[in-house]
Amino acid sequence: MSGLAMPSVNADIMARRAEIVAALREIVPGEGTVDDEIGMRTYESDALTAYRQMPFVVVLPETVEQVAKVLKYCHENGIRVVPRGAGTSLSGGALPLADAVLVSMMRFNRILDIDFDNRTATVQPGVTNLAITQAVSHEGFYYAPDPSSQIACSIGGNIAENSGGVHCLKYGLTTNNVLGLQIVTIEGEVMRFGGKHLDSEGYDWLAFMVGSEGLLGVVTEVTVRILRSPETARAVLVGFPDAEDAGRAVAAIIGAGIIPGGMEMMDRPAIHAAEAFVHAGYPLDVDALLIVELDGPQVEVDHLLQRVEAICREYGCTTCRVSESEEERANFWAGRKAAFPAVGRISPDYMCMDGTIPRRELPRVLKGMAELSEKHGLRVANVFHAGDGNLHPLILFDANQPGELERAEAFGADILKLCVEVGGCLTGEHGVGVEKRDLMPEMFTEDDLKQQQRVKCAFDPQHLLNPGKVFPVLHRCAELGKMHVHHGKLPFPDIPRF
C-alpha cells in the first residue's frame, strides 16, 4: 500500500478466524456473511483505489438488532470493525484492515417515512443520495446536498464524510441538512440524537456524528431536511482566457452579495475531457469555465443573471451563455458531474484531492498548483466548488510507471499544505481517512489532536471502530486521561481535588 502505515495485525484474531466467522454467521446468516476471497474482493478498497487490503470478513446486516449484536460481539472479543457505505469515499475512509470485520450497510436501503408537513424524510443509511430527491420530487421537494457521486453514494457515507456538492454553497453541507440520527455504539447500544424537530436539546451530538468517519458509531437511521424546489433555476456558462481571472470573478460575485445556488469552476484539461465525454456544449477555446446557477423567483433570477454577467465581463470573460430551458441547464451540469470519470479517459490513474481555501486565495492557489505540477512532473486537472473554495485537483499519473504513485502522493500533500498555508483546511467533503491522516499536524497542534481523540475515547475506549484513520498517532485513552504535572505543580492548584 505504497508504504502506508496501518495498525499492526492482531495475530490472535487471525488465528481465531474460523471461530469468529462462524459466530458472525449465527448473527447474520446466509449470504449476509462473506468470507471467501472472491466475494470479499469487492470490498478491498473504496474509490481511493491506490490503497487496497482484503478484509478479514464482511457482514451485511439487514436489521438494527443484527448491527447491535455484531458490534457487541466484536467489542466483547476485542475485534476491530470497519463500517462501510457504498464505497465511493475518495479518502480511504472505508479501507479494510486485515484483522477487522467490515460491516457493509448497503442492505439498509429503505425509505422509512416522508413527512411533507414537517419537510423531513427518514431513511436508512444505505439509501442513495439521489433516491431521496426522487422519492419526494413528485410533491415539488428535493434534498439539497448533491455530491457528484449522488447516483451511487449512500446517505450514511455522506454523514460519515460530511459531504457537500454543487448546491452546498447556498443550502449547506450534510451537517446543515441532517435533523436526526439513530446510531449503534461499539458496545451494541442503540442511541438516538435529534429527530424531526428543528433543533436538538442539550449537547449537539449530531455535530459530533456528522463527519466522524465511522470512528464513533454505526449509523442505522437518518432524518434529513427536504426543501421546496425553487420556482426557477437557470445556469450560465462563463469562459475565461485566464484561470486566475476566473478566480477573481468568483470572489467578486460573492463579494457583491450574490449567493448562487451553485458555482463551479473547471480548467482547460477538465473542460476538454468533460466535453469529449458528455458533449455539453462547453467552449474549448478558454482556460477556465465557470458554471453559475441562480435559483428563486423568476424576476430575481433574471436580475441576478444580469449582475453576474456584468461582473464576469469586468474580469475579462470571453464567452457567456445562459440556459434557455431545463434540459439545457441539466446539460451544463452533466458535464461537471461527469468530470471525474471523464478525466479517467485521459489518464490511466488519477488522485482526487479535497482542500478548501478562502475564496480570495483562488488566484494564488491556482498559480501555486501550476508551479507544483512542474515541480513534480505530473499533470493536474482542476474541478472544484468555486463558490465555497472547495478544490478538487485531479492529479494524473500512471501507477504502472515506477515512482509515479509516490510522486502523485507528494504532489497531493504539497497541494494540501498550500491550502492550509493560505488559511484553508485539509478537507471540505471527502474526509481525512488515510489519505490526509499524516497531514493532520499541518493543521492541528498536538493538543488539538489529543482533544479530538478524547471524544473518540468517550465513544470507543478500545479504539475498535475504524482504527488507522484520521489520527496520525493514536494515543491510548489512559494516556489522554493522565493529568499533566509541570515542575512538580498541578494545574489549577486552587481547585479542590478528591
UniProtKB/TrEMBL annotation:
Record-linked Gene3D superfamilies: 3.30.465.10, 3.30.70.2740, Vanillyl-alcohol Oxidase, Chain A, domain 4 (1.10.45.10)
Keyword Metal-binding among record annotations: no
Cofactors demanded by this protein: FAD
Pfam family, one: FAD_binding_4
Highest rank taxon of the organism: Bacteria
FAD-binding PCMH-type domain ranges (all copies): 51-229
TM ranges: none
Database matches in InterPro entries: FAD-bd_oxidored_4_C, FAD-bd_PCMH, FAD-bd_PCMH-like_sf, FAD-bd_PCMH_sub2, FAD-linked_Oxase-like_C, FAD-linked_OxidoTrans_Type4, Oxid_FAD_bind_N, Vanillyl_alc_oxidase_C-sub2
GO MF term set: FAD binding; oxidoreductase activity
Name of this chain's protein: FAD-binding oxidoreductase
Keywords assigned: FAD, Flavoprotein, Oxidoreductase
